[in-house]
Specification:
CATH class of the largest domain: Mainly Beta
Mean pLDDT: 78
Low-confidence stretches: 225-292, 303-309
Largest sheet: 8 strands, antiparallel
Radius of gyration: 23 Å
Shape: elongated
CATH topology of the largest domain: Jelly Rolls
Distance between the termini: 19 Å
Number of domains: 2
Oligomer: single chain
Helix content: 10-25%
Length: 403
Amino acid sequence: MSYASEVLLDSPYLYWRLDDPSGTVAEDASPNNRDGTYVNTPTLGAASLLSGEPGNAAVGFNGVDEYCRSNVVLNTTTVTIMVWFEYSGTPPGGPAFVCGFTDGVGSATNDKSIYIDSSGRPNAYAFDGGPKTATSPDALTAGKHFLVLRQDGSTIKIYVDGVEKASTGCGASFNGYSVNNIHVSGNTADKGYIAGTRDEFAVFTTSPTSARILELYNLGNGDETVSSSQTSSQSLLEPQETVASSQTSTQSLAQSVASELTNSQTNSQTIVEAYGITETISQSQIASYSLISRLRLPIVNIVDEGVDPGVYYISDGGSYLLDNLDRRTFIEVTSQDALDRDLTIQTSYTQDGLELDDRVVEIPAGEVAYVGPFPSYIYNFNITDIYIDAPDGNLKFRAFRLI
């Protein structure tokens, strides 16, 4: 089970693991290639702040002049920032910058940042025409902490070790940056440096749920039983296809799917190798998926005690969509006649301007197949939805979510 692969399933804008062995490049672990640059020689190879990953490393910053900055400018009105931070236990003399957005070190133009105040409390700050700050009521204890800023266009929140500590109203935040503006460590016109190790820094332009933030904290803290979207190395690249008899109970299905949920790392290269690149992406083709009139499938939740049967849909060659925001959705599908039938799951993932093949699952005649779960960064359109097509017709299916 890997913390990194779980972060990648949430499609970060950039993800610096801060485990670089040497040099000045903070490698971006996401498929987006948004590397950062270490400035003034921070200490690489510090002990990782993740539990249970002894081969990992982190970066120590001296609290004087060391930092890491992006080589890109991100202007976004909503953002989520995650970082693991080791705190000395001694409050700074004034507000001190852990990470966030600034138009260069020392700049008065800054927001979407996590900082520690003179009482040792973590804060989430953004500027939506005026300063908005969510301040934790509790000072940090000495040691490692998982700090998360989530600003979604209506509120800004600060999370500490997976728990929401404070929230305040905040509209669309500042989006007028002009220089490389994402920083780990550093200072601004009103916030100083603070020493301490940083690890696993990630920026998202989406808003993960509070439950998801807690899952990531637990996973990084060594609890491997909580992650909801773990998949095997095969199913990370394609939906899991499990063929079972039509007598399979939903309770045993829940148990079998849960047992399949193991985890592995992946990256864009292994995805491309596994799928194979087909042709230059056609934007009109991608758009056509959205324009097709699709019936939304309801989803039945599965819990440990099993589930009452949900509604079956009989395909006559139609197109469908279903929610996959939390990546726990899967489909039960049956071919109703003596012929093998195909179910197509559209892919939205691209690499270097090329698209991956849509996933075509063959459903054996008269048998039941369970297809899923579906990694969101490969299959989700419009952030939340999977698009499926049953061009052959005569398929019976229903959707479930494992909770």
